[in-house]
Amino acid sequence: MAQDLSTQNTRDVAAPDGEPNRRAISFTPVVDIFEEDNLTVIMADIPGVEPDDIDVTLERQALTLRGRVKPGAPEGYRQLSSEYRIGDYIRVFTLSDEIDQANINADFSNGVLRLELPRSPETQPRKISVKAS
Amino acid sequence: MLQTVFPPLNNSDPFSNMRRAQGAMNRLFDDPRTSGQPTAYPLVNFQAGQDSIVMTTELPGLTEEDIDLTVKDTMLSIRGTYPEPRSGDDVVWHRRERPRGTFLRSVELPFRVSPDHIDARFRNGVLTVEMQRPEDDKPRRIQIKAS
Predict the structure, then answer these.
(1) Is 80 exceeded by the pLDDT of residue A126?
(2) Are the Cβ atoms of B33 and A45 closer than 8 angstroms?
């Protein structure tokens, strides 16, 4: 349904066309993926990202999630201690042909990006009636 | 599994590949964002302002109502429960990486704070708690007289 690309591939995606490497670190967001009825749902944790800074792109079968985080502490504040680091998020999935790519739904709330990938009508299981001869 | 994206290859160092592989192995067992030590949950960062300290922590998927914040003297406690993930016979799971269950974390603050001087906000999955230093706890400037 939605397969993770390997890390090697993610590296290429992070710096497309030799774009100068950004100083910022990137993280692979944790995800839940499940299927229900005719939907595959991907939920990705990208806390700290503003809705406008989320970028979901679909190129052929590669679905890329990107979230940009605005840097650090507000004016006049200095870092005292830091247990977790802050950086951009990126993760790439390969979609199968069975996904209706024109009807992907994306929703963002409380730091979680939820993508709903419907199965395309042609591949939905169809009941074939068997006639008795 | 959290993994950092590898930095670009540095061809001048013949061992960089090996180190990268080693790093990748280590990351399999460690969360890179925690520098490897086993830690409490959730992780917190502290910033200092003029007369306040700010604690931030990432709690994606929760709402304001799911988080319980209490303070007693110098102890700040964060408690919460993640919503139950979808279950049922017709749900097929492929990946479950997001946090679940209940957590409690208590953090010792550098000074006593009164609950009236706390400003807590939850935005885009990040909890930000700003705590003002009480008046009687602030460092005071002492005039030095010439004798």
Answers:
(1) no
(2) no
- Give the number of domains in chain B: 2
Range of the domain at B6: 1-39
B141: CB partners within 8 A, 6+ apart: none
CB contact under 8 A, B46 and A27: no
Q: What is the DSSP string of chain B?
A: ---BPPPPP-TT-TTHHHHHHHHHHHHHHS-GGGTT----SS-EEEEE-SSEEEEEEE-TT--GGGEEEEEETTEEEEEEEPPPPP-STTEEEEEE-S--SEEEEEEE-SS---GGGEEEEEETTEEEEEEEPPGGGS---------
pLDDT band (50, 70, 90) for residue A14: very low
Q: What ipTM was assigned to the predicted interfaces of this complex?
A: 0.75
Mean pLDDT by 10 residues, chain B (147 residues): 51 64 64 55 91 92 94 92 87 92 92 87 94 80 88
What's the topology of domain A2-14+24-74+83-123?
Immunoglobulin-like (2.60.40)
Structural domain contains residue B144: no
Report CB contact under 8 Å: A110, B125: yes
Are the Cβ atoms of A48 and B50 closer than 8 angstroms? no
Is the minimum CB–CB distance between B17 and chain A shorter than 8 Å?
A: no
pLDDT at B111 (0 to 100): 84
Q: Which residues of B touch A110 (CB under 8 A)?
A: 60-63, 122, 124-125
Nearest to B44 among A37, A49, A83 (CB): A83
Nearest CB neighbour to B60, from listed A40, A79, A112: A112
**Chain A contacts of B32, Cβ < 8 Å?**
27
